[in-house]
Specification:
alpha+beta; globular
Length: 465
Amino acid sequence: MAKTQINQTSVQSQLQHQRISHRQIQALQFLSMNTMDLRDEIYKEVSANPALEIVKDNRNAGDLPSASSVNQQLLENTEEKNESLQHHLLHQLNSMKLSDDESMLCQKLIYNLDENGCYGSLLSPETLIDKSRPLQNREMLERCISIIQRMDPVGTCCRNLEESLLVQAKISGKADELSLFILDGHLDLLNPPEASRILHKLTAYREDWHKKAFAPEIPLDKIELTIASVQEALHFILTLNPRPAQGYSIDSGADYEKPDVILRVERLEGKLAADEIWHGLVAGDDKCHFQVKYASGILPELRIAADFTFDKENLARAKEFIENLTYRENTLVLQCCYIVKEQLNFFLNGPGNLNVLTRRQLALALGLHESTVSRMSSRNNSKYIQTEYGLFPTSYFFTSGVSSSAGEKVSAEKIKKLMMEMVEKDGSLSDSELTARLNAEGIKIARRTVAKYRANIGIKNSYQR
């Protein structure tokens, strides 16, 4: 019987283990938390650690008006109608024959209006579409917005009050071309509202416009500018209601995805030579740049308690707590700056102009772990970006796409926009023909994907058009 020989050898190996510190764990937890949970965590820590004190409670500060403001508020309340804007609009909505999907979408739009009857400071309308309901698409959304805009009072459900005036003018059917030109982004020409000075500004505007190289024709070129035409336009504009929601209270009873953490993106005049990310600044074009700001909302302001030096352990813990709150703010602003940089076309020109952007791209660019980015931008997190086009969840800016012949990615949103333009020019185009035209433009896309995108944007198939 053969003997089995067992040889023992000694092998030395080195393994590297990374342990996450308490500080890192807390910092990541803060990044995931919504404002209410973080507020509770702050109060819990303040009560447990005497080294921390609250300087200002932003929620309470807003809840404690002065005696004079209370008297003014009481006076204003007596002048207001008892009916809320939402109740007034819903009463009209309930008398209309709409589908369940249209009715549901209209209700969301109505409850998403602010005290001016606008949505610019609240959720962007397209974020209210229920993607689990196939019939709710962009076409239905535009139809629902138009329905509400035509209700009494005319001109609600607009981005801002300037747009409301333009909508009112179009709905009236009485607006002349000069009125429509002034209302379409040129209201500054009415300051002061004197016909002779407005005429001078309009003439100067037209002359300056055509000094530009290759300047195209504008509507103003076809309008005869005289004192009489300016007076007529001014008289019409002054008949419009600058505040259609005035006199109604606001009912915020339906809580449709109210934002929790808001990052504000403001368009500022002037060219910025290069991005200054660490100051929250992103270069735009030759005319503007963007400022990203963090809105703390109802979070209290903290500081180390004055003259607290006798307990080094609590002092160190307090400093770490404040540093982690600062990390949360800085990380959110940093990620938002990168989103603005990568989606610059959107922030310059509005919805319909998104580029392909993934969370992995953002993580690699900023040297962050992908999970850190997900904590900010997952669909379940109530973190939003306030833009001049409305309020959007951070997840909105991450989009997939398909490859082009140049090896670049083209976002789904851009493809949908192209398809809409193609169908507007030729309503008989089939899915196969749309696919062929997109392929001819260098976009590698399958017919079944085209069919899916067409349904998403509410375009009927060629047999039903």
